[in-house]
Amino acid sequence: MPAPNAAPDATTDDGRTVLDARDIGRALTRISHEILERNKGASDLVLLGIPSRGVPLAERIAERIASVEGYDVPVGSLDVTMYRDDLRMKPARALLPTQIPGGGIDGRTVVLVDDVLFSGRTIRAALDALNDIGRPKAVRLAVLVDRGHRELPIRADFVGKNLPTSLVESVRVRLQGIDDVDAVTIQGSTEGEVA
Amino acid sequence: MKRHLLSAADLSRDDAELVLRTAEELRSLADRPIKKLPALRGRTVVNLFFEDSTRTRISFEAAAKRLSADVINFAAKGSSLSKGESLKDTALTLEAMGADAVVVRHSASGAPHRLANSGWVRSSVVNAGDGTHEHPTQALLDAFTMWRHLGSLDGRRVAIVGDVLHSRVARSNALLLRTLGAEVTLVSPPTLLPVGIEGWPVETSYDLDAVLPKADVVMMLRVQRERMHGGFFPTAREYSRRYGLDGRRMATLQDHTIVMHPGPMVRGMEITADVADSDRSVIVEQVTNGVAVRMAVLYLLLGGSEPAVSTEGLSE
Questions:
Q1: Contact, B245 vs B184, CB < 8 A?
Q2: Are residues B127 and B223 in the same domain?
Q3: Domain shared by B121 and B154, yes or no
Q4: CB atoms < 10 A from the CB of A156, how many?
Q5: For the whole model, what pTM was predicted?
Q6: Are residues B108 and B211 in the same domain?
Q7: What average pLDDT does this structure show over B303-314?
């Protein structure tokens, strides 16, 4: 278990830590500012986290926006399970919460928030799900980690860290509230095991 | 969950809670502009109803359609069944049409079990009420309604009152509520308790007034006169006086206690109109919850490559 101030390359039983708590905090602060800059303010924004770990990330971004702009951005969650293209390939999965803020998403700028951007299939499912809920003015994507290997023409607008990975590696994001610690680690990399 | 849902006893606690949690998420769909999810696109659900039903069939139909499944309704009246076709031949027909799930209601106890285990069909079989045996999705929607009002059912006291003998709802509820940790008391005249009730995981009582003040849930059952061939009680008035829920009896309930009825109600018989329309009554909500619960059941049986099993389900 890495301490919050562990060096970025500390090797632990859980794999190689690539972002620690402070790195995650800084990345989210930067993303929050980038969202505000791009959107020219916080009005009309809606943050939708993709469960499970996109939700605390969306909440943290909203906190930062509130402290900068003094405006509470509506935060919700969007479960994409039923829209996944691999639904038929695995046993039926439990649904996670979908909570659309009271004002809805029509005519607003929706920022989807997820922890890791990988194949892009989750985001495709999320776009389909949004389609059934309303018609946003624009949809943006914020992710904590972009690990590459896209299988669809999808990219993120706001990225915490670009993390080149190989397909044999797995990226694990842990966030307080769901997990006991804030950390992003890579497992299965030979490089990490040697270091 | 197993491939079929034939009995409330087939559900482990984990399975039942998975259905309830899934239903909770699906219930919010009713508030959205587009009340549809793509999960069962291209799957076919056949409603095979050998016995009259309004709300259960409509509820299953709405549930399947909201999940984008194709629905074929098959009622005994007006079909080859009224010409004497057997259950087996009907099943083979359905199999040839490629049904993914068969929702079956039959007046014979055990018919869904026969359909599921005969090898006639490969589809999932959901019991929508068989004779006086079981009605598991009704028990699930009842448990879901209680859970939304009371939270955990552990240690909660549920009184099920009335014609237990002819009630598949009572049996399924007794089994499921026991699994979920509730304490069930069946209140009924001695003539309307089934033989072998000692083997059920329940208490029994003949005295409604003694049970009501302790109950967290009071579930009234309809007196199923169409299944009665003989005298089970002297008169309807005497039944109402001893086992009917009226305003006077309702006043003895605890403040949080809810009143349920699986429908169809006979107002004035087992429940008076002022009770059925009171704030405690969640009877209309039970119908709404029925769609969400049946969506959850269909999704968990058909949504994946195989039905959700108790050990998985919460991954990711």
A1: no
A2: no
A3: no
A4: 20
A5: 0.89
A6: no
A7: 57
- The CATH number of the domain where B26 resides is what? 3.40.50.1370
Is B105 noted as a catalytic residue in this protein? yes
Side chain identity at A13, as an amino acid letter?
D
ipTM: 0.81
Residues of B with CB under 8 A from a CB of A: 18, 21-22, 25-26, 28, 32-34, 36-39, 67, 299-309, 312-316
Q: Both B262 and B177 in a single domain? A: yes
How do residues B129-144 score in pLDDT, each as one tens digit? 999 999 999 999 999 9
Q: Is pLDDT of A14 > 90?
A: no
From A102's Cα to the closest Cα of chain B, the distance in A is 11
Looking at the structure of chain B, the number of domains it has is 2
Nearest CA to B10 among B119, B154, B132, B116? B116
What is the count of residue pairs from A and B with beta carbons less than 8 Å apart?
70
Q: Is residue B311 in a domain?
A: no
Q: What is the SS3 assignment for B16-30?
A: HHHHHHHHHHHHHHH
> Are both B243 and B297 inside the same structural domain?
no
Q: Please answer whether residues A90 and A152 qualify as being in contact, where contact means their C-beta atoms are separated by less than 8 angstroms.
A: no
Of residues B55, B65, B148, B242, which has the active-site annotation?
A: B55
Domain contains B247 = yes
CATH 3.40.50.2020 fits A16-84+97-194, yes or no: yes
Question: Is there a catalytic annotation at residue B113?
Answer: no
**Same domain, residue pair B231 and B188:** yes
Active site residue B83: yes
* Chain segment B236-279, per-residue pLDDT in tens: 899 999 999 999 999 999 999 999 999 899 999 999 999 999 99
Task: Determine the distance in angstroms separating the CA of A41 from the nearest CA of chain B, rounded to an integer.
Answer: 28
**CA A57 – CA A55 distance, rounded (Å):** 5
Q: Does residue B118 sit within a domain?
A: yes
Minimum distance, in Å, between the CA of residue B116 and any CA atom of chain A? 20
Shared domain for B84 and B148, answered yes or no, is no
CB contact under 8 A, B313 and A89: no
Q: How many CB atoms are closer than 10 A to CB B89?
A: 13
A94 with B314: Cβ contact below 8 A: yes
Chain A residues within 8 A of B18 when measuring between CB atoms: 94
Shared domain check, B270 and B173: yes
B56 labelled catalytic: yes
Which residues fall within 8 angstroms of residue A9, CB to CB, at 6 or more apart?
A: A16, A17, A18, A195
Q: Residue B177 is part of which domain span?
A: 136-283
**Is B311 noted as a catalytic residue in this protein?**
no
Is B294 a domain residue? Answer: yes
